[in-house]
Amino acid sequence: MMDGEPRFVVKRLESEGISELEFKRSMEILGKVRHENVVALRAYYSSADEKLMLYDYYSNGSVHSLLHGQTKNVDWETRVKIAVGAARGIAEIHNEFGGMLVHGNIKASNIFLNQQLYGCVSYFLFSNMAKTRLISTSSDVYSFGILLLQLLTRKTPAAVNLVKLVNSVKTKERAANVFDPDLLKHPSIREQMIKMLQIGIRCVANSAKKRPKISEVVEMLADIDISSRVSRSLDSMSQEGKLVFLEDVNVGPVFEIEYLLEASAEVVGKGSFGTSYKTILDNGSIVVVKRFKGVNPTFKDFQKHVELFGRMNHMNIGRLKAYYYGRENAFVV
Questions:
Q1: Domain range spanning residue 233?
Q2: How many folded domains does the chain comprise?
C-alpha cells in the first residue's frame, strides 16, 4: 500500500464443506456487525476454489505479538484494557442475530489492539460455518479464559498447560506463583490480579454450565478496570514532587532531583516556554534538561502529556527519559 492509503488484512478461509451460497449469506450477516471492539469485515471474495475475507488493519498489532514479541514490559492498565475490550467485542458478537454468531477461534493472535490499546476481536464465524458442534458461546468463554490467563502469566498455551497451572493454586498466597514477575513488582495491583485470575478460572471450568456468560464477564472486568484507574490515579498523586524515570528507557544511573538541580549545566537554548540546559551525569552521559517557565498546567495534565510523548520511539524524535513536576519547577529530561 502507498503511504496514506487504507490498509487491510486478507484472511484466506479453508472452504471445505462450505457452499458458495452459504458463504455469501454468512458474509452478508458478518459484515453488518459494527462495534468498537470488533474488527470490521469490509469485503469478501468467493469462487468455487477460493474464499477471502478483508478486514481492517491494526498498526499496533495483535495481543500475541505484544505479550510474546520484543516488548519488554506490558503494564497492568494495558492488560486490563485488552481484557475489557475483547470481552465487550465477544459479547457483541454473541448478542447478534439471536445468538447465531459465535467467535469460534478466540486466541491472542486474533485479538488486535486499537489506538487506545483496547482489545478488538477478529476472524469470527457464523454458526453454520463451524465445522464442529463443539463451537459455541460457552466454548468462546473457555477460550477467553485462556486469554485472561495469558495476560496474567505471559505464558503461551502452546508452551504451558495454563488450566493445569492455575488449578494447582489453592490459596491467594500461592496465586503469586503463576503471575508474570513484572506484574508482581507492583503490590498495589495484587488484588486486581487475583480477581482477574478468579474470573479466568471460572471461564475455564470443565463443565460448560459452570462457566459465566460473556456478559457477566464484562461486568466483572469492568470492576477491575475501575480499580485499575483508581490505583493509577493514586500512583500519579504520589509521583508529584519526584523525579520520575520512564520505563524501558536506558537512563544510566537513577538519581534524585537535588543532584540534577546542582549539577553543572550549560545553556543550549531558550524559548518562549523555558530554557534548555546541557547536563553531564556522573557516568559521563550527557542529557538535556528543559525547564519550563510561564506554563502552569495541573500535575495530571502535565503527566498525561509527558507520558504520551514518552511513548514515542523514533530515530528523529528526542527520547524523553524522565520528568519532574513541583510547586516551583517543572521540567523534562
A1: 8-237
A2: 2
